[in-house]
Amino acid sequence: MSGLTRAGQKLPPLEIPITCTLIVAGAIASRDYQDVHHDAELARRKGSPDIFMNILTTNGLVGRYITDHFGPTAVLRKVAIRLGAPNYPGDTMVLTGTVEEVVEHADGDTATVRVVGANGIGRHVTGTVTVTVPSGGAG
Questions:
Q1: Mean per-residue pLDDT of the chain
Q2: Ramachandran region of residue 136, left (φ > 0), alpha (ψ -120 to 50) or beta?
Q3: HSE-CB for 72 with a 13 A CA cutoff
């Protein structure tokens, strides 16, 4: 990361279309069978306008955002996120990130990145990700 990543650096935004398929597939992949993630009628009965994305899918998308930027050798050390506005089908979530800190080590560098994922109704996810890129890794 040295020289290529520094505190204050902005990561390019990533737009993720929120589809029913993404929501349901993410819930199934993470074995989250709560009806609000796959049955629109039951979700409406519980007060939601539609099905919505679960936190494990969001967590995976945040991880993807970071590893897409830092490359295939990047290792996620810590992902700490908080959900806000739900991700509903038909919307788009835009992930953005800002490097808060970079610590250089002999065997690689570790960055702390502040991540925000916003959709049409507000901030869906906020948090920080700590990622290490071994020496010689992409960045």
A1: 94
A2: left
A3: 0
Residues 6+ apart with CB under 8 A from 122: 84, 85
Question: For residue 8, what are the CA distances in angstroms to 98, 100, 101, 124, 126?
Answer: 6, 6, 8, 22, 17
Rounded distance between C-alpha atoms, residue 73 and residue 127, angstroms = 22
DSSP symbol at 44: H
- The residues that bridge with 118 in the sheet, in sequence order, are 94, 123
Write the pLDDT tens digit of every residue in 71-129: 999 999 999 999 999 999 999 999 999 999 999 988 899 999 999 999 999 999 999 99
Sheet of 10-17, strands arranged across: 10-17, 92-105, 108-119, 122-134, 75-83
This prediction has a pTM of: 0.92
User: What is the DSSP secondary structure assignment for residue 9, as one 8-state letter?
Assistant: P
